């Protein structure tokens, strides 16, 4: 099981990148994808970066099926054993967000009711030092939002939570499905908390 340390800083650029490098199913390998995360007393901050020049981005309304576009996703449970359920942040490059919360994979779940401006969604298109094109989505996760659904949640230093990071795409592109922590299922499905890796709050 993979582990990532969520750095205690208000500058996401101080956090290290890790790679979405598991492509377990019988599809083409997707574009190179990375993530990094940091935290402060009141929020998580996450950056997702994909080396892709022209990402597919048809969906432009909240909670549309961005997973069919070129999509990066951040799933996490604010608990060490997934008992608190999990949130799924899914974003294309517009950026447009799909945001849900479920108690388990079997639970139908709900769409998260929270003002979008609080997530500070932002897309960047740029090149790295080697001249490679990438797009990046940055966003924050307010702890106040988490506590609306998990009232007793406290994400303090040393807390272990669970999560995974994904890259997928379906329509108008080479279909692909990748993850940070390996998912061992017969076919693509990201809603398996039992395959979440470990995130440690620094």
Could you give a short description of this structure?
By secondary structure, the chain is mainly β.
Strand content: 35-45%
Helix content: under 10%
Distance between the termini: 18 Å
Shape: globular
Q: What is the level-2 CATH architecture name? A: Sandwich
CATH-defined topology: Immunoglobulin-like
Which CATH first-tier class would you pick? Answer: Mainly Beta
Mean pLDDT score, rounded?
A: 97
Relevant terms:
mainly beta, Immunoglobulin-like, 13-stranded mixed sheet, 1 helix, about 5% helix
How does this structure look, described?
With 202 residues, the chain is mainly β. The protein is 3% helix and 40% strand. 40% of the residues are buried.
Blueprint of the fold:
Layout: E1 3-8, E2 18-20, E3 33-39, E4 43-50, E5 71-77, E6 86-91, E7 97-102, E8 110-111, E9 122-127, E10 133-142, H1 143-149, E11 160-169, E12 176-179, E13 197-201
Parallel strand pairs: 1-3, 1-13
Antiparallel strand pairs: 2-3, 3-4, 4-10, 5-6, 5-11, 6-7, 7-8, 9-10, 11-12, 11-13
């Amino acid at each position: 099981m993979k582990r990532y340390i969520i750095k205690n800083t208000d500058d996401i650029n101080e956090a290290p990148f890790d790679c979405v490098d598991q492509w377990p199913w019988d599809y083409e390998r997707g574009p190179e994808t990375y993530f990094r995360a940091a935290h402060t007393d009141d929020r998580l901050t996450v950056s997702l970066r994909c080396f892709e020049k022209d990402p597919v981005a048809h969906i432009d309304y909240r909670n549309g099926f961005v997973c069919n576009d070129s999509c990066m996703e951040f799933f996490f449970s604010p608990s060490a054993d997934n008992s608190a359920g999990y949130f799924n942040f899914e974003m294309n490059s517009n950026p447009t967000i799909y945001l849900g919360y479920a108690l388990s994979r079997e639970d139908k779940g709900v769409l998260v009711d929270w003002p979008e401006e609080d997530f500070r969604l932002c897309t960047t298109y740029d090149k790295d030092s080697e001249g490679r094109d990438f797009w990046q989505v940055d966003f924050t996760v307010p702890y106040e939002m988490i506590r609306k659904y998990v009232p007793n949640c406290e994400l303090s230093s040393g807390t272990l939570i669970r999560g995974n990071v994904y890259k997928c795409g379906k329509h108008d592109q080479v279909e692909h499905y990748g993850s940070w922590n390996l998912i061992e299922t017969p076919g693509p499905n990201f809603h398996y908390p039992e395959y979440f890796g470990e995130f440690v709050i620094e």
